[in-house]
């Protein structure tokens, strides 16, 4: 399978246009971060995309965990669970791989 051209990103690897996101783009973004997307990743990626679509902003890390807990359950909001999925930073990398802007609270 030939790799598709990745849509334009900023210097930190976030998509410049979130509308250019799809699962193939997510796979390419994840590969850049040495992450192999599994069902657990997709659940979080679709969750954060829906959150952003509904509220037009991104939560801080605490709000992210609280929203996950409320929607997907406490076990999936646990920091250990999220760190296992996104070792470099759950909120930042979930947003990056979901094609969303960098959260304002992330360095």
Key attributes of the depicted protein:
single chain, 107 residues, mainly alpha, Arc Repressor Mutant, subunit A, 6 helices, 0% strand
N-to-C CA distance: 35 Å
Mean pLDDT: 93
Order of helices and strands: HHHHHH
Strand content: under 5%
Q: Would you give the CATH topology?
A: Arc Repressor Mutant, subunit A
Instruction: Let me know the number of strands.
Output: 0
Helix content: 40-55%
Q: Please identify the top-level CATH class.
A: Mainly Alpha
Helix count? 6
Cα-atom radius of gyration:
13 Å
Structure explained in plain terms:
With 107 residues, the protein is mainly α. It has a single domain, classed as Arc Repressor Mutant, subunit A, CATH 1.10.10. Helix content is 54%, strand content 0%. The chain has helices at residues 23-32, 39-55, 61-72, 74-77, 79-85, 90-97. The longest helix is centred in the middle third of the chain and has 17 residues, at 39-55. The chain is globular. The mean pLDDT is 93.
Topology of this structure?
Blueprint: H1 23-32, H2 39-55, H3 61-72, H4 74-77, H5 79-85, H6 90-97
Short description, anyone?
With 107 residues, the chain is an all-alpha fold. It contains six helices and no strands.
């Amino acid at each position: 399978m030939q790799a598709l051209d990745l849509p334009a990103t900023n210097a930190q690897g976030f998509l410049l246009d979130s509308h250019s996101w799809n699962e193939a783009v997510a796979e390419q973004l994840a590969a850049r971060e040495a992450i192999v997307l599994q069902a657990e990743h997709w659940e979080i990626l679709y969750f954060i995309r829906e959150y952003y679509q509904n509220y037009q902003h991104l939560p801080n890390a605490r709000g992210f965990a609280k929203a996950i807990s409320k929607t997907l359950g406490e076990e999936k909001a646990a920091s250990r669970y999220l760190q296992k999925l996104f070792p470099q930073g759950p909120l930042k990398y979930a947003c990056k791989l979901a094609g969303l802007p960098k959260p304002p609270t992330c360095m």
